[in-house]
Amino acid sequence: MKTTGQIIAAIITLFLLAETGFAGEWEKSFDLSLNATQASYSNNWTGGEAGNFSWVWNANGIFNKQLSPGFQLKNTFKLAFGQTHTQLEDENGDEYWAKPKKSTDKIDLESVGLIDFNAFVEPFIAFRFESQFYDASVDTNKRYINPILLTESVGIAKQLLKKDKDDILTRLGLAIKHNINRDLQETGLDKFETVTATDGGIESNTDVKLVFNDKLSYIGKVTVYKALFFSDKDKVEGTESEDYWKAIDINWENSVTASIAKYVQVVFYTQLLYDKQISLKGRLKETLALGLTYKMF
């Protein structure tokens, strides 16, 4: 964790330097959105349908700045939270609203520093923080900002496209990942502990932002990671899953946004995940949302 603290301190220092009068200006975008869907049925409706109400709040931002002629800082963040409320019927036939369930929960912050040597590729250093607003996996033990995944990486980067608002950056390097799970309760015991697992390996990231016109845009990110070591490999040695940590992990996100009015947007989002330690099959998430959006800048 000492290395993590040093990386965080370095990033804070870079943010402070950004305000000391270097020539570059902030390239920034920030938007907030709220999407909701609702369905209800009368008491004499047949077929077993249940009323429901779902909402999702999103905040997305990009903040880039040329801190000096030879150093650029790129910052991105994605925040999302949503719940689904479902109407049920008790044994007496009376309808009631069940406790809401979380449908979306994401905290994803990343800062990338690029060193410009006027070469074909550029060195980079990056830090990424991933978590969720609260962990509802155990009803009796809700933990906020848990679990936490910290990724520190260094390597080489290539700016494939930089024109107006379009931006494609690809990176390849070495990464160290710390997975922190706080207040984890041991099965059958009234005991809690913080568990930290660390692994390291080779990571590739490609970030894409394409603005086709003032009505249509696309944002995508592909992360491919191959672990070379794992701190908890002894715990799974001799089991069926002892080599699962060696498999390649994939995270592919796509978001297409279409503005149909000043404050109304349609967003189509897909995410493909593959992590053999979590599931032997790929996991797919897909959402199509219509809602209110406010662009701050």
Structural key phrases:
297 residues; 2 helices; Outer membrane phospholipase (ompla), Chain C; mainly beta
| Largest sheet: spatial strand order | 1-2-3-5-6-9-10-11-12-13-14-15
Question: Strand-and-helix sequence, N→C?
Answer: HEEEEEEEEEEEEHEEE
Architecture (CATH level 2) name: Beta Barrel
SS field, number of helical segments: 2
What is the CATH first-level class name? Mainly Beta
| Bulk shape | globular
Q: Measured on Cα atoms, how large is the radius of gyration?
A: 22 Å
The parts where pLDDT drops under 50 for at least 5 residues are: none
Polypeptide structure, described:
It is globular and about 75 Å long. The protein has helices spanning 2-17, 233-236; strands spanning 27-39, 52-68, 71-89, 95-97, 101-115, 122-131, 134-135, 143-144, 148-163, 166-185, 192-211, 216-230, 249-261, 264-274, 283-295. The model has no long low-confidence stretch (mean pLDDT 87). The chain has a single domain, classed as Outer membrane phospholipase (ompla), Chain C (Beta Barrel). With 297 residues, the chain is mainly β. Strand 3 and strand 4 form a beta hairpin. 15% of the residues are buried.
